[in-house]
Amino acid sequence: MEKIEEIRQFIKAGKLELAHKKLETIIDPNLLSTPENLEALFCTLIHVNPIIRHFLKYLRVKKVPNIPLDTNNDHERRFFYALYILNKFGGKRLVSPYLENIITHRPIEMRFLGGIYFFNLDFFNAQKYYKLASENIQGQFNEFEHAHIWGNLAASYLYTKNFESYEKTKRKALIASNDHISIKRIFSKYDLLKFIQQSNRKKSKEMDRICIENNYYTPYAGSHEKNYFKAYRDSALASPEEFRKSLINLKGYYIDQIHKGNFTPERLFSNFAYLSEITVHSKDIWEDIIEFKNTNYPFFKFSILNKSFSPKEFKSLGNPLSKNFINYETQEYCINGFKGIGLNNELRAIYWIIRSHDYGVNFETLASFIYEEDDFAGLFLIKERIKQIVHRIINHYKIPIQSKFYRAYINNDFLENIYITEKERLKIENHFTINQFMDFYDISNSKAKKILNRLISNKLLSKITVGRKNFYEII
After folding, report:
1. How many percent of the chain have pLDDT more than 90?
2. What does the pLDDT look like over 77-107, one tens digit per residue?
């Protein structure tokens, strides 16, 4: 692990590809049982995005530990880092059960636990664990290990409008780091955001000048931060035309990274939601570019600046006249001659891939939608399971699905040949018996009973008894 410092210098110089190659040569799974080695490697690794997903194989986690997790144990510590990776690529629903009552012991572990919540836009829990991490830092300031703790704690306070705690964090970070350049860079840019949030144009312009003079907008982290902060400073300080251009550039960068598998759409939506709240420019300038309000993509509800955002009320997508359809609420379907009621994993996957068609959907996110019940044993089989599901969709259902960088896409032309919906009633004629239900959907008596009970439980049907006969009414 003595080569870590050399690799970090490559990262600081912007030589990410070289750093990537060097990292791969020094990863030794046997050394990862030492917490210091695991932390030093992982804190370096996250600056070289594409490799982090492949790090799962080096963790060598072969079984799922009992809950609650305790990172004092080598296996459970490795499992915790695996959770961080799965969460980063969209596995929030799969990861969430393991976070309850988790026991961490080291500030870097607290940092990454805070990072899981931060990535999921749960800024109050992120604050809790980043604050714990900052209070437990020992020894000399280390940019790669400690700067993210202070920076993301500060960002969490900005996103919740807690300016008093933000200022306290800035003072503590500057003292703890001995005014390290990385901390000065982080907080100069965050001060800009703070003044923009507070609609203080004079101080925003002053801080913008400081950032430009000190080259704080272009750190070694790369083009994301450059595009990101340009859009933010332009949201308040540039002309409407320049702001619009910055948004288009930022969106293009995000979509490219999404298609490469490095970002998720949630990251784009949350950053654009923040921009929409702080910009001085009218909606006419940015509303057609910022898509979080009018997308079919199934992102989770989140809050920024104490305001909640959620996807629009999804109703349907595709061609309503098509013979191919999936009704996710009733679980009726007809796909290229396969007709029935009750959605298997492949049919659920088709639905969610179509919902995500503009962006595609990460395997981890897709798995979290498909496997509705806790599937502990399947956490580390996601890649192979989803690959098999995509293969069956293509070969059995004849749906044109493509996958690249662990992300599944639908051929958009196929949207003319399918209709998905959540809000429409059952297709069977109202007031029916169980035998009519069995005949209509071509299912057995036992399956019909199970489905009818589910539909009644979901308040989609009611049962009426007339004499000795049961009838079912669509609600």
Report:
1. 73
2. 999 999 999 999 888 888 888 998 999 999 9
CA atoms within 13 A on the CB side of 255: 13
Q: Are 333 and 427 in contact (CB under 8 A)?
A: no
- In terms of Cβ atoms closer than 10 Å to its own Cβ (0-12, 13-18, 19+), residue 366 is buried
Q: How far from chain centre, in Å, is Cα 254?
A: 13
Q: How far is CA 458 from CA 131, 132, 288, 475, in A?
A: 42, 43, 37, 10
How far, CA to CA in Å, does 149 sit from each of 142, 226, 326, 443?
11, 21, 45, 56
Give the mean model confidence (pLDDT) for residues 55-62: 89
Token digits of residue 436: 């009519």
**Cα gap 320→469, rounded to integer Å:** 35
Q: How far is CA 457 from CA 5, 133, 433, 463, in A?
A: 59, 45, 17, 11
Asked if 63 and 73 count as a contact pair (C-beta separation under 8 A), the reply is: no
DSSP 8-state assignment for residue 33: G
* Structure confidence at residue 226 (pLDDT): 62
Helix (H, G, I), strand (E, B) or coil at 316: strand
The rounded distance, in Å, linking the Cα atoms of 251 and 300 is: 20
Amino acid identity for residue 167 in this structure: E
* Nearest in space to 41 (alpha carbons), one of 70, 61, 19: 19
N-to-C CA span, the chain: 64
| pLDDT category of residue 382 using cuts at 50, 70 and 90 | confident
Q: For residue 4, what are its two tokens?
A: 């870590």
For 113-156, how does the pLDDT look when each residue is reduced to its tens digit (9 = 90+)?
999 999 999 999 999 999 999 999 999 999 999 999 999 999 99
The 3-state DSSP class for residue 428 equals coil
> Residue 457 has what pLDDT?
94
Angle at 29 between CA 24 and CA 30, to 5 degrees: 135
The answer to whether the beta carbons of residues 316 and 422 sit under 8 Å apart is: yes
CB 180 within 8 A of CB 141: yes
**Residue 467 and residue 376: Cα distance in Å, rounded?**
47
Least confident segment among 322-326, 381-385, 407-411, 460-464:
381-385
Residue 420, strand partner residues: 317, 326
Query: What whole-number distance in Å separates Cα of residue 381 and Cα of residue 385?
Result: 6
- Given the DSSP bridges, would you call strands 316-318 and 419-421 parallel, antiparallel or unpaired? antiparallel
